[in-house]
Amino acid sequence: MAGTCLENPYAERINGIIKNDYLIAYDINNLQQLEKSLRKSIKLYNNCPHGRLGRKSPLEYERLLGQLAVTEHPVMQLYDFNIGNKRAQDVGFFKA
Q1: For the whole model, what pTM was predicted?
Q2: In 3D, which of 9, 2, 5, 3 has the Cα closest to residue 92?
C-alpha cells in the first residue's frame, strides 16, 4: 500500500512494466494461464537487476535494506510541483 497518493505513479509504473513488457509475450487464453504467467513475470521482475537500484534486483535491494539500520534507509523523494521541471530528473531515491 502506498503511504500517500503521490506514490501511486510508482506502483502504476511497475504494473505497466509487468503488463506491457512481460505478460504481452505470453499467449494467455484463460484465468489459469494468466495466474501462471503473472507469477512467472513477477518472479522475473523481482530478480532482474535495475539501474535505479544500483544494478541490484528488487529482492537483493530489500535484503540490503534489511541489513541497514532504519536511520540509514534511502528516502524516497516524490515530485515537488513547486520546483518545476528543472530538477524533476533528480526525483527518486537518495541517501538522506
Answers
A1: 0.65
A2: 9
**Is 50 within 8 Å of 58 (Cβ atoms)?**
yes
Query: Of 65, 47, 43, whose CA–CA distance to 56 is shortest?
Result: 47
pLDDT at 84 over 60: no
HSE-up (13 A, CA, CB side) for residue 41: 20
Which of 91, 94, 55 has its CA nearest to residue 73? 94
Q: What is the pLDDT of residues 1-53, one digit of tens each?
A: 667 777 788 889 889 999 999 999 999 999 999 999 999 999 999 999 988 88
Query: How many Cα atoms within 13 Å fall on the side-chain side of residue 55?
Result: 0
Q: Show Cβ contacts of residue 61 under 8 Å, excluding neighbours closer than 6 positions.
A: 50, 53, 54
- In angstroms, the CA 53 to CA 46 distance is 12
